[in-house]
Amino acid sequence: MRPPIHVMERLSRIAPLGVRFHDEATGALVGDGLQVSAFPEHLPAARKPSVVNRSGVHVLMDLPGLRDLEYGDGDAGTDAWWAALPARRPYIVEVQDTLGRFLPCAFRAQLPHRGLFAPDCISSPLSPLSPLSPGDGPSVPLFSAPARQSAVPLAVLRAELWDIHARIPAAWAYVEATVTGGVTVRGIADEGGRLALFFQYPEPVDFAPGSAMDASSLPAGPPLLEQSWALQVRVHYARHTPVPELPDVCLTLSQPPVGVWADTGSPLELLEPTLRYGQELVLRTQDAPGSRLWITPTGPTP
Length: 302
Fold this sequence. Notes:
It is a single chain. The chain is mostly beta strands. The chain is built from three helices and 22 strands. 5% of the residues lie in helices and 31% in strands. The longest helix is centred in the first third of the chain and has 5 residues, at 79-83.
């Protein structure tokens, strides 16, 4: 018979930050290939890398200024323990993709944070391809890099965005594309203004989505390779000098709308191109030098 176990002391360790990431194009969780680190605001030399657990959550520990909070007594992690914590401290989280699929990014976090973290500015409906559900908890979106290759058939919108006033690439511009009567998808250009916006193809024309009727009773639409859809494309951009190496997620998604040039006549609020199945949609300003899409920033320069 085993002797009774007497608990002499109970220690707990609290992770100041846990964060998950998902592919903005498909909604799938992304854990592998990412380099995630955090450091106190204004102290990048004190950065610490994350550790990825089996659930794909990047966990950051041993952060400067928070080590004493990580190790607590048996009450650590309880509601009372979190309620009694002193004021949180500001940290910067930076994300790089070593596999070249996603653009780099950064965001601010007040730590320690209870549960999975996502910036308050992030509110995105899950992709129809996503295996996640709203109850799976928060995650941070990762946006496609221009050189990304997709393993599944996705639509792609490309552009080389150009700040016509400053005559420079529109670094980290934010683009939204809406299918008529459908959802809005979004993408971000890289530091050179190059955009690759991947998204799921819309429902085929002339077919009733989600219909419980037999397929043979539905009206016949064009063959898949002849399907096309009207889009509405809006560009958001604020010129930053100098251009940041890693764009801040919240600042990027809050950029103001700008004028877009379909031709060299005058800027428009939006473009209305046609997406065709199996073909990349490339946006450019007609008669402009090269293959650039001109945009006209508004408001003061940050």
